[in-house]
Amino acid sequence: MKDLFRIAMEEYGVSEIAGIEDEERILQYFHDIGQEWVKSDEVAWCSAFLNWCAMRGGYKRSNKLDARSWLKVGKECFQPVIGDICVFWRESPDSWKGHVGIYAGKREASIYVLGGNQNNMVCIKPYPEHRLLCYRNIE
Questions:
Q1: Which of 16, 33, 95, 112 could form a disulfide with 41 if both were Cys (CB 3.0 to 4.6 A apart)?
Q2: Domains in the chain, CATH or no CATH each
Q3: What is the pLDDT of residues 33-80, one digit of tens each?
Q4: Is 41 exposed, middle or buried (0-12, 13-18, 19+ CB in 10 A)?
């Protein structure tokens, strides 16, 4: 298991606070990666979380808040191992929108991803394999 996966697992369960309050830990992810302008846990934070984990582990990172920015980090891999990066499309394959997280395994047509902003929290969640844009190795 890669160190990146371990770092992310240490944050498992960190969750947005419903309503006007904000989860300080999520805001800390933004602050630590140089995105101090973010003042709400309602801002999409999957890429911020991954950048934070990568920074803590000394890995390459995108330094951007859009999930698809990870398509340019590291190198593409075709046989992912736990700890590699998964980049998915959201809405449509041609949209700028996406999701990014850490590969946790595969079962049937689902890819299990450890990431932030999954059901508004850090958790492991399955994503449809057909939405995968690519796997990335960032070591």
A1: 16
A2: 3-137 (3.90.1720.10)
A3: 999 999 999 999 999 999 999 999 999 999 999 999 999 999 999 999
A4: buried
pLDDT tens for each residue of 85-95: 999 999 999 99
Q: What is the value of pTM for the model shown?
A: 0.96
Asked if pLDDT for residue 3 goes beyond 90, the answer is yes
Q: Could you tell me if 60 and 138 are in contact, meaning their C-beta atoms sit under 8 angstroms apart?
A: yes
